[in-house]
Amino acid sequence: MNQKESKALWQTILGVLEVFAIDAIIVGIPMALGGIETPLVLVAAVFSLTQLIYIIPRGIYLYRKKKWPRFKGVVIGGVIAAFLNGGCWLYLISMMSNTHY
After folding, report:
1. Are 41 and 93 in contact (CB under 8 A)?
2. Looking at residue 36, what DSSP letter applies?
3. Which of 1, 6, 37, 70 would bridge 15 by S-S if both were Cys, CB 3.0 to 4.6 A apart?
4. CA–CA separation, 15 vs 34, rounded Å?
5. Where are the domains of the chain?
6. Burial level of 25, CB count in 10 A (0-12/13-18/19+)?
7. Which residues contact 69 (CB under 8 A, 6 or more apart)?
8. Distance between CA 33 and CA 37 in Å, rounded?
9. Whole-prediction pTM value?
10. Could you write out the DSSP letters of every residue in 63-87?
11. Contact 30, 38 (CB under 8 A)
12. Which pLDDT value is given to residue 74?
């Protein structure tokens, strides 16, 4: 691997870490404000909406600036976060549908 490929790889990894860091902040704020009692559905909903608000514009910005490795990293991080969030939603929905009142 030459120096250019190595730099591109690190930029891609940095893009993924950028998404994960912002996701950690997004999930941490409602948990910090509401404490442990914060409903998980609220945290998941906030996470889903805010992801759309920051990933799409960030991707468009990086695409226009032709920063391809970082763009790929943001896309990869966004897809991983979306899959994890989708799994959490499915789990929460199944838990709520199995609840008997």
Report:
1. no
2. G
3. 70
4. 29
5. 39-101
6. exposed
7. 7, 8, 9, 10, 11, 12, 15
8. 10
9. 0.76
10. HHTT-HHHHHHHHHHHHHHHHHHHH
11. yes
12. 92
What are the tokens at 21?
């860091």
Q: At what angle do helices 68-97 and 40-64 cross, to 10 degrees?
A: 160
| Helices 3-34 and 40-64, axial angle in degrees (round to 10) | 150
Q: What is the pLDDT of residue 34?
A: 67
pLDDT digits (tens, 9 = 90+) for 22-74: 888 877 776 677 665 656 666 667 677 778 888 889 999 999 999 999 999 99
pLDDT at 72: 94
pLDDT at 101 over 60: no
For the four alpha carbons of 45, 47, 48 and 54, in that order, the dihedral sign comes to positive
